[in-house]
Amino acid sequence: MPKTPKGELARERIFKAGVVLFAQKGYHAVGVREIAAAAGVKLPMISYYFGGKVELLKEIISMGFARYYDSINQAAAAATGTEQRALAVAKGMIRFFREEPELSLVSFTGFPVDMAEIHKLRTSLIKKHQPESPYLFAELKLNVADSAMIHIFTEFMYAIVRNHFQYRYSLNFYPSAAQVLLPQKKNLNKKSADQIFDDVFYERYAEIVAKALILSARGMKSA
After folding, report:
1. Alpha-carbon Rg of the chain, whole angstroms?
2. What is the DSSP string of 118-136?
3. For the domain bounded by 1-51, which CATH number is listed?
4. What is the model's pLDDT at position 221?
5. What is the pLDDT of residues 37-57, one digit of tens each?
6. How deeply is 97 buried, as exposed, middle or buried, from its count of CB atoms within 10 A (0-12, 13-18, 19+)?
7. Cβ-contact 90, 161 below 8 angstroms
8. Which terminus of the chain is more solvent-facing, meaning fewer CB atoms within 10 Å of its CB: N or C?
9. Given this chain, do its domains 1-51 and 59-222 carry the same CATH topology?
10. Average pLDDT of 91-101?
11. Which of the four CATH numbers 3.40.50, 1.10.357, 1.10.3470, 1.10.10 does domain 59-222 have?
12. How far apart are CA 110 and CA 23, in angstroms?
């Protein structure tokens, strides 16, 4: 079957349906029939375009990693100095998770932990993309020989931002959770996550995360 505009559109619909369903339900809870129904295509088209559900997941994760690192690199490209670079990296992370909520969840939090081939793919993607990303360790003067320290600081901003957006996404389905976790906000049941977490919030969020990284690194040097 040759590639056609109609065929490419069907492939895109399958991809998007997989992203949304995997994000909302988890990989193992979603079947290929459900993906086909959500995409509005016949079941065999999933195998034709992606080779099956596992290969679809792999393409989603690969796309997620590429866009994640692109967002960071673009944000940090013009930054100079440690503080501005850290802030740029934080903003790049936030922009990706904010603009690609389902894609980010599937790529970084919703992948199956019992599939060796997915772990292998993620490891290869990290090795491929990390050297391209802004490397702050030298500027922060961290001891690169201390594997525990490097692991912590590699995860520092990423883990904070990732966990926040995982919670934020859940508000779309469980708005009552916000009444417990954010009691200082009024009328949360009448607000969407976009209204609770707006541009002003994320400007401040990025500043705090970046400063926390720098202060923590400085504290490690003096400890």
Report:
1. 20
2. HHHHHHHHHHHHGGGS---
3. 1.10.10.60
4. 63
5. 999 999 999 999 999 999 999
6. buried
7. yes
8. C
9. no
10. 95
11. 1.10.357
12. 6
**41 token code pair:** 């295509």
Q: Token digits for 144?
A: 């690169």
List, as own/partner pairs, every contact residues 151-157 make where C-beta atoms lie below 8 angstroms and the sequence separation is at least 24, other chains included.
153/213, 153/216, 153/217, 156/212, 156/213, 156/216, 157/86, 157/89, 157/90, 157/93, 157/209, 157/210, 157/213
**90 against 80, higher pLDDT:** 90
Domain definitions of the chain by residue range: 1-51, 59-222
In terms of average pLDDT, the best of 149-153, 164-168, 185-189 is: 164-168
Average pLDDT, the chain: 85
